[in-house]
Amino acid sequence: MEAQSLPAALALVAGGGAGLSPERRAALGASLPLVQRDYRFERVWFWGCIQGVRGAYYIAEGLGPDRAAARSRLYSLNCLDWSLLTPATKEMLALAEQVKGRFQGDPSFEYSLSEINAEAAARLMESVEQIDREVGIVPRGAFVKTPLGSVHENRHFEGLSLVEAKKLSSYFHFTEPVSLKNKTLLEKADLDPSTDFLDSLEHDIPRGSWSIQLEKGGTVVVLRSLLWLGLTFYHVPMTKQFGYVYFGTGEKNLDLPFML
């Protein structure tokens, strides 16, 4: 979620139980502009919160001109003091993927894995990246890809129509496409390479892993992930307003295929 529009955005997703106390909102309002200034980010997004046993990690993401480029991620325990999450090595991420159960809420905590340890920060980084990769989404047309490959916000995007906003096919995973690369040239013939360069949600596996609803008197479309419980996306049709936020335990719902 864009830091500047955070209060209004949180109000739009409050129906799913997502929210922050007035104190936390005030702290974010004061600290995130400083993060943007100090780290020289073009934009700062409030990503959400991973709730641990002993405390919570609040996550922010810093972006540069190319929105598809790797993001800088920061965490805070109080929404005021932020620390940069150092990109983990492949070995650290592999160890972190083996850790199960709740986060502790202590960045210095070490998880025992037989004879090896995985740092909590590496697991935090891995979880945020995985959630972004699997359920971080944007509306169709909100971003454009240039012939040189960089991705930017589409200045001409004025929002989806209400009819289109109610379709899963109108939303894309904001990450490197997989199924799109497997399409034939004939299947790609009707696609606009500048806007249709991502994978849509309509073929996500397992089917039924998204809940899509109209809320606020039919003025807001809200998508919730059933695979990563706590991920909520919103879009106000016919406007530029959209975004997603995560409030959860950082655990994937592995039982979903058996629940559908």
How many structural domains can be distinguished in the coordinates?
2
- Computed structural class: alpha+beta
Q: Report, as a whole number of angstroms, the end-to-end distance.
A: 29 Å
Mean pLDDT: 85
Uncertain runs: 113-117
- Provide the succession of SSEs: HHEEEEHEEHEEEHEHEEEEH
Instruction: Assess the beta-strand content as a share of residues.
Output: 25-35%
Characterize the largest beta sheet: strand count, sense, and whether it forms a barrel.
8 strands, mixed
Number of helices: 7
Output the radius of gyration.
18 Å
The dominant shape is globular
Q: Tell me the total number of β-strands.
A: 14
Widest beta sheet: strand line-up: 4-3-2-1-14-13-12-11
Helical amount among residues, as a percent range? 10-25%
Explain what this protein looks like in three dimensions.
- There is one protein chain.
- With 260 residues, this protein is of the alpha+beta class.
- The chain has two domains: 3-135, no CATH class; 137-244, no CATH class.
- It is built from seven helices and 14 strands.
- The protein has helices at 6-12, 22-39, 90-98, 120-135, 162-165, 185-188, 256-259, and strands at 43-51, 56-63, 72-76, 83-84, 110-113, 116-119, 137-139, 143-145, 151-153, 171-173, 210-215, 220-225, 231-235, 242-248.
- The strands form four sheets. An eight-stranded mixed β-sheet has the order 4-3-2-1-14-13-12-11, with helices on both faces.
- A hairpin with an 8-residue loop joins strand 2 (56-63) and strand 3 (72-76).
- Helix 3 (90-98) crosses helix 4 (120-135).
- The chain is globular, with a radius of gyration of 18 Å.
- The two termini are 29 Å apart.
- Residues 113-117 have low confidence and may be disordered.
